[in-house]
């Protein structure tokens, strides 16, 4: 199955830590994702529960698979704050997070490992549901963090290296998904990246 991951478009919080915050798309953001989807269709459509994803997805399909596992990483007390603001008040915590988000999550937030596990489990559920419906291709509207977790867990790109991959609003990541015949585990091959 081919899976297209589409990052949501611009919101008023672009450039800030935005995980569990739930802004709407700006008019520019809506135009960005519409342009990416013009002339395309998918046999299965899925989304993060965030409004910045769901508000657009209803234009593409009457039936949408929504999974809480596709929420962006929870940034705790850093939600809706800029890097500059956090740097001024909590530079040591921010440096620790950048050094190792597994061991040093944002205060009150989610560790990278817990987040990436959650995303991997949601991808497995999506693949099973789309497969049960006979879909050969699927669209998933999500967040940059989800895309990085997929690159780490399914493609094998280390987290530190994934930060060097630009994923601006309305970026597309294309994967070929399959189940391993031996153990049923989900496998993926990177098929494209469009920024």
How confident overall, as mean pLDDT?
A: 94
The whole-angstrom Rg is: 16 Å
**What would you give as the CATH superfamily?**
Phosphoglycerate mutase-like
How would a textbook summarize the main sheet?
Answer: 6 strands, mixed
First and last CA, distance: 22 Å
User: What is the CATH topology classification name?
Assistant: Rossmann fold
Structure description:
This protein is α/β, with parallel strands linked by helices. It has one domain (2-194): Rossmann fold (3-Layer(aba) Sandwich), CATH 3.40.50.1240. The protein has six helices and six strands; from the N terminus they run βαβαβααβααββ. The protein has helices at residues 27-37, 51-57, 83-99, 112-132, 144-155, 159-162, and strands spanning 2-7, 44-47, 65-66, 137-142, 172-179, 186-194. Strands 3-2-4-1-5-6 form a six-stranded mixed β-sheet, with helices on both faces. α2 (51-57) links the parallel β2 and β3. α4 (112-132) crosses α5. The two termini are 22 Å apart. The mean pLDDT is 94.
Summarize the structure in short.
This protein is an alpha/beta fold. It contains six helices and six strands, in the order E-H-E-H-E-H-H-E-H-H-E-E.
How is this fold's topology laid out?
Elements: E1 2-7, H1 27-37, E2 44-47, H2 51-57, E3 65-66, H3 83-99, H4 112-132, E4 137-142, H5 144-155, H6 159-162, E5 172-179, E6 186-194
Parallel strand pairs: 1-4, 2-3, 2-4
Antiparallel strand pairs: 1-5, 5-6
Helix pairs in contact: 4-5
């Amino acid at each position: 199955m081919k899976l297209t991951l589409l990052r949501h478009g611009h919101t008023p919080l672009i450039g800030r830590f935005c995980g569990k915050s739930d802004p709407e798309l700006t008019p520019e953001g809506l135009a960005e994702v519409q342009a990416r989807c013009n002339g395309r269709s998918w046999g299965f459509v899925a989304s993060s529960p965030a409004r910045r994803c769901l508000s657009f997805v209803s234009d593409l399909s009457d039936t949408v698979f929504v999974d809480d596992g596709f929420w962006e990483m929870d940034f705790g007390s850093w939600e809706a704050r800029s890097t500059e603001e956090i740097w001024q008040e909590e530079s040591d915590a921010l440096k620790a997070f950048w050094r190792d988000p597994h061991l040093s999550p944002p205060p009150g937030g989610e560790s990278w490992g817990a987040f990436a596990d959650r995303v991997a489990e949601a991808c497995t559920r999506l693949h099973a549901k789309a497969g049960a419906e006979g879909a050969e291709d699927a669209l998933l509207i999500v967040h940059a963090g989800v895309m990085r977790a997929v690159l780490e867990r399914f493609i094998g790109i280390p987290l530190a290296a994934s930060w060097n991959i630009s994923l601006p609003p309305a970026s597309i990541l294309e994967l070929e998904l399959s189940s391993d015949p031996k153990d049923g585990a989900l496998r993926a091959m990177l098929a494209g990246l469009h920024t």
